[in-house]
Design goal:
Strand content: 25-35%
Number of strands: 26
Radius of gyration: 32 Å
Strand order of the largest sheet: 17-26-25-24-20-23
Mean pLDDT: 81
Shape: elongated
Length: 509
């Protein structure tokens, strides 16, 4: 009896695949679950396992493009090569594994797809696999990290069993696209399951190698061919010694040694060496960086952005901090910073000038009666903007604690989508990096952003006398389509007034 092996469904949007390479030849005897070939889609490369044990009959060749569901090969389960008498089918590897490892295959395969992570997110990037292909994983165990344009989140296993990668690190996947499969098992493998797994995947006991050793994936083969590099000269770092795309990108073609006749003229005409290193390096832009770049350009092109400036005497706030910072920290367990003063001041000003706290939605203006203040934070993977919800209702210590919490999660790349969406106004502090003045770009769909800068001791005229005061430039960038000059300037003047006399914040005047 022959079993037809068809191209499996690998994702909702994928309709065809290309045969990358065959690991088995026509007429070879294959075992259950043994990898037969590699298939390449427009999003990922994946392996095709044997669905039965028997003799392989190849129906499609390397490079052929097949539709989903097309027959790619057949497995003759009736006999083995070189015998006319039907042979007993070899015991499936899953049963062998069961005997030695204590786990039992159920036959169920759990297909894991990219989950919905936010209303505005349509695609994600597979950052890195935490579990390798073929590893045993438990239900809810973290198997991979995925980057969206707003945050990095962890992908938990949706079943217990053997993990099979479908997507590779660096692949961009749409929401709902397949990322991996889990061959569901009952029970956890014993310690010797690792050696059983290696023999089940075709490892040669005598040589510690198998069909994958030294083989290049389709993407790697293309890169090596373009470079003119032989796969034999490249050491594979992938599973079982396979040559990955990264190995191919890092491979260098060894240049033949020049003859004496060739080297002498070159030496005579070669320019004088340049002192110092001239190395270059390229890094792929992260999804977060690409999205930030796209949005900043969009804001510049689609809004009537304008910036107005003012300066603030920071001495009253600095005096208050010096007087009460020890008592504040002792009572609340958090330091008294400048951010709480600025947050409280802009909340008062936003409620007095609601257009600055509004946004345009089509042909309508949406006014917000609450103040969700976004705080720009420089995280390891780029700029993120977590939100302090209903900041107008919070006290100084509550604001400071929230700033510390959000900044810590941003540095650890642990911010959730909910913590970074829905702000109505943004604060950004370039002063911590030494910026004297800047024109910050609006954080769409908001209509305004306030830029804080460094504090500099400058001579100022006070009551006819020159006094040295700690001064800060503040900049308000706003969308002139919704905010008029009167409102923007009045808003910034009100913020200046509240900061230069912070007791107003206590009495609401």
């Amino acid at each position: 009896m022959s079993k037809e092996i068809k191209v499996p469904a690998v994702g909702e949007s994928i309709t065809e695949v290309t045969i990358g390479q065959w690991f088995k030849k026509d007429g070879d005897e294959v075992q259950m679950d043994e990898v037969l070939c590699e298939l390449e889609s427009d999003k990922a490369t994946f392996e095709l396992p044997a669905e039965a044990a028997g003799v392989l009959r190849i129906k499609a060749q390397e490079g052929d493009v097949l539709e989903i569901g097309a027959v790619i090969c057949e497995i003759d389960e009736a006999g083995t090569p070189g015998t006319s008498e039907p042979a007993k089918a070899p015991e499936p590897q899953s049963k062998t594994k069961e005997k030695s490892s204590g786990s039992k295959a159920t036959g169920e395969v759990k297909e894991m797809v990219v989950p919905t992570v936010g209303e505005s997110i349509t695609e994600v990037t597979l950052a890195n696999w935490i579990k390798s292909d073929g590893d045993y994983v438990k239900l809810d165990e973290i198997i991979a990290e995925v980057d969206s344009d707003k945050a990095t989140f962890e992908l938990p296993a949706e079943a217990s069993g053997i993990l099979r990668h479908v997507a590779q690190e660096g692949d961009v996947l749409e929401i709902g696209g397949m990322i991996c499969k889990i061959e569901v098992t009952e029970g956890e493998p014993a310690a010797e399951a690792a050696s059983d797994q290696s023999s089940a995947s075709g490892t040669d006991v005598s040589g510690n190698t198998n069909y994958a050793t030294g083989h290049a994936s389709p993407a790697a083969s293309k890169i090596l061919a373009e470079k003119g590099v032989s796969p034999e000269s490249v050491k594979g770092t992938g599973k079982d010694g396979r040559i990955t795309k990264e190995d191919a990108q890092n491979a260098q073609k060894s240049a033949p040694a020049p003859t004496k006749a060739e080297s002498e003229p070159a030496a005579a005409s070669a320019p004088a060496p340049v002192a110092g290193s001239r190395n270059e390096r390229r890094e792929k832009m992260s999804s977060l960086r690409k999205t930030v770049a796209k949005r900043l350009v969009s804001v510049k092109n689609e809004t009537a952005m304008l910036t107005t400036f003012n300066e603030v005497n920071m001495k009253p706030i600095m005096d208050l901090r010096s007087k009460f910072k020890e008592q504040f920290k002792e009572k609340h367990g958090v330091g008294l910073g400048f951010m709480s003063f600025f947050t409280k001041a802009v909340c008062v000003a936003l409620q007095e000038w609601p257009a600055v706290n509004a946004k345009i939605d089509g042909n309508e203006i949406v006014y917000n009666d609450y103040c969700d203040i976004s705080i720009a934070v420089s995280a390891p993977k780029g700029l993120v903007v977590p939100v302090i919800r209903n900041a107008e209702t919070l006290s100084f210590d509550q604001i400071e604690k929230e700033v510390v919490r959000l900044a810590g999660k941003a540095r650890d790349n642990k911010l959730s989508i909910e913590e970074m969406t829905g702000g109505t106004f943004t604060l950004t502090n370039g002063g911590i990096f030494g910026s004297m003045m800047s024109t910050p770009i609006i954080n769409a769909p908001q209509s305004a952003i306030l830029g804080m800068h460094n504090i500099v001791q400058r001579p100022m005229a006070v009551n006819g006398e020159v006094v040295i005061l700690p001064m800060m430039y503040v900049a308000l960038s706003y969308d002139h389509r919704i905010i008029d000059g009167r409102e923007s300037v009045s808003f910034l003047v009100r913020v200046k007034e509240l900061l230069e006399d912070p007791t107003r914040l206590l009495f609401g005047v």
